[in-house]
Amino acid sequence: MFKAALISLTSSNIMADNIAVVSGYIREAAAGGATFISTPETTHLMEMNRKAVLEKTFAEGDDPGLKAFRALAKELKVWLHIGSLIIKVAEDRLANRAFVIAPDGDIAARYDKIHLFDVTLANGEAYRESALYDAGDTAVTLSTPFGTLGLSVCYDLRFPYLYRALATAGANILLVPAAFTKQTGEAHWHTLLRARAIETGSFVLAAAQGGLHATGRETYGHSLVVSPWGEILADGGTGNVTGPGVTFANIDLDLVAKARQTIPSLTHTRAFTLESL
Questions:
Q1: Is 41 a catalytic residue?
Q2: Catalytic residue among 47, 113, 129, 182
Q3: At what angle do helices 190-200 and 160-168 cross, to 10 degrees?
């Protein structure tokens, strides 16, 4: 059993301000007894303008947020999952990259978002992540003293084969940091997270952005902890959006073994062919 904390944010387009806000919540989470702390997608910058985001971002080694968060993990002796940072990988290209930082401040794992959100919604909102971001091509698990983490980011949630692969590789805690739009979140967020937990018999921890951002984008919020049986153990939401803050939950990995014994679907994979008539 360990205590996890999910940090909910309404990140702005000013990186220094976001770093300060997040750092305060990380300290609050650690003071509340959390030994594993998770933040949402695009933790330290929510910027929609292409020119501005390229001007405001850094290569990994120079990123001020990553430096600050590594120092905090070391100071507080906690495992810190930064849901994602926008990292510059070329003069005109970015990566949406998640980090897991160990209690000694070292980076234990990195994950670049595999599935990019290229879509036009019914309300006219359009997103083209691939116009600026490079997609990752490697799924990542990380063994820790408290469990094995399976990493993902936001839109990845809609691709169940990724989570099955993570679970069959040993993950019993699936991380889904996100900045879901309000429209898609209201329709699908809770259902998809519960489904990924049930399908894999895993805990799902999903720290979320929520609220109206300085750029005009509105995100759904509702940071969730879901049990391997699909029960929502904690919901950081208030109304339709999450207010910034910290949500705690106790994680009992014995529930993973119980769920997978009751519904052993991970061991029942069969090869098949597809016939189209």
A1: yes
A2: 113
A3: 30
